[in-house]
Amino acid sequence: MPTVQAALAAHFQAIRDTHLRELFAQDPARFERFSLRVGGILLDYSKNRITPETLSLLLQLAETADVAGWRERMFSGDKINHTEGRAVLHTALRNVSNTPVMVDGEDVMPAVNAVLVSMEAFAAQVRSGAWRGYTGKPITDVVNIGIGGSDLGPQMVCQALKPYQSPQLRAHFMSNVDGAHVVEILENLDPETTLFIVASKTFTTQETMSNAHYVREWFLQQARDPAHIAKHFVAVSTNRAAVMDFGIDPANMFGFWDWVGGRYSLWSAIGLPIVLAVGMENFRALLAGAHAMDQHFRSAPLAENMPVILALLGVWYNNYFAAESQVILPYDHYLRSLPMYLQQADMESNGKSVDRDGNPVSQSTGPIIWGATGINGQHAFYQLIHQGTKLIPADFIISVTPPTALHAHHDILMANFLAQTEALMRGRTLEETVASGASEPLAPKVFAGNHPSNALLLDALTPHTLGMLIALYEHKIFVQGVIWNLNSYDQWGVELGKQLAKQILPELHAASAVHSHDASTNGLINHYREQVQ
Ligand code: F6P
């Protein structure tokens, strides 16, 4: 019996040159066969280079990897993040059905619910104006100080849900330790009416802590009395001791737990800026949407399971077509940060070359995730997707109902969305090029086509469908991690750079030339030292 991988490799050889045009011509029911609706999301995956046999083999691959077993382990709180000895339970944070979820013999749901209640109470005070700054004025601006998972999720969601935002409260996100980012945000703010959320799972991240300390000094320059900090600084963290050391009253701390990965944390208290921006009702709708996708993922057969299908298509291109990247193309201004958000979610999770057993992987793992709003991308990088030498599977995302009253604009957006997926799929033959009236030379005007894409259509971009969409990608990443036998929930790779940065920082002002690194790093450090002295 050949392994399923061998069967897939043989099948790949058999269909690698088959054109999507042929597949559509052979099967008029291809859309019905290869599309799936879950709640307010339709996935059309018929423009992929697959046949029913491909899908059946990929599903066997998922079965062989025991996706269903690992899925159950994740949902039930097994410590599947084995290198850190942690459960992976972002699903518990949005478990709106409130069934018990056990970690170390304890149901985590009461603690999850208690934090949600305290977020709600706090946000209600700030949003209503009852929470006053140290001079008695209501809060007008909220600044989230955090980076990575403590920034990208809340920032992306606040942007996506802009139509739901309260105009009285402006949200800002300070992530970069580049002083320009700090100055740019602070220069328009009034300390009397600004609330700072210091968001860090560990409360040790250099960028976040440096910014938080600087901002505290900036605040005290005007407020003077450290007692006023309580009205203007709150913390979101798992590290209570470090929060107290910083000088934030634990009464103003919103906690979460080590079983929430940073890049999966927007559902936790890390979502506080979202609650402040759009209100608790909308945040709960976001959680409910994610929960709906969790339930679908947990219970639907693999063949009808949206995250599983997306994951398997990604594996098909990554491991058989040797595609190196995956492009995310939202045709939605409000989803413009989604590609960046998914970069961390996917690349920090599955950017691994050692498997769960500590062995080097024998196959390609996580793809490079990139993208931008599709309509802008059309006028920038689509050329390479259409006619370059690389195969780049694309996810096109759009809402059926537009977020504004500009319906004619939305029709143009939709027409472009459809035109691009069709053009990528069909290409243009020489005959068609001639028939279009194109002049010589013709060759550069011929398109090979056969470029795969998924189309994801949201009924509308609401808190609920957004929650579903994010959870869809989270579970896709999970399934791919299982198939590649990875621990998707640690991130040891980023640690080395952090350690080296700490070592280099004092060397930038060393009294004499630095020789402790390689010639390049020494040369650069000394160049900088000499210039800034
Ligand atoms: O970049 C590494 C990382 O640990 C991410 O995983 C995390 O989201 C980010 O840093 C921020 O970490 P923290 O929330 O602990 O400040």
UniProtKB/TrEMBL annotation:
The active site is at E348, H379, K498. Pathway: Carbohydrate degradation; glycolysis; D-glyceraldehyde 3-phosphate and glycerone phosphate from D-glucose: step 2/4; Carbohydrate biosynthesis; gluconeogenesis. Its main location: cytoplasm. Transmembrane segments: none annotated. It is an enzyme of class 5 (isomerase). It is found in: Cytoplasm. PROSITE patterns: P_GLUCOSE_ISOMERASE_1, P_GLUCOSE_ISOMERASE_2, P_GLUCOSE_ISOMERASE_3. One of its GO terms (biological process) is gluconeogenesis. Its EC number is 5.3.1.9. Pfam families: PGI (PF00342). The keyword Amino-acid biosynthesis does not apply. InterPro entries: G6P_Isomerase (IPR001672), G6P_Isomerase_C (IPR023096), Phosphoglucose_isomerase_CS (IPR018189), SIS_dom_sf (IPR046348), SIS_PGI_1 (IPR035476), SIS_PGI_2 (IPR035482). The keyword DNA damage does not apply. Keywords: Cytoplasm, Gluconeogenesis, Glycolysis, Isomerase. One of its GO terms (molecular function) is monosaccharide binding. It comes from the Bacteria. Coiled coil: none annotated. It catalyses: alpha-D-glucose 6-phosphate = beta-D-fructose 6-phosphate. NCBIfam families: PRK00179.1. Catalyzes the reversible isomerization of glucose-6-phosphate to fructose-6-phosphate. Belongs to the GPI family. This is Glucose-6-phosphate isomerase. The gene is pgi.
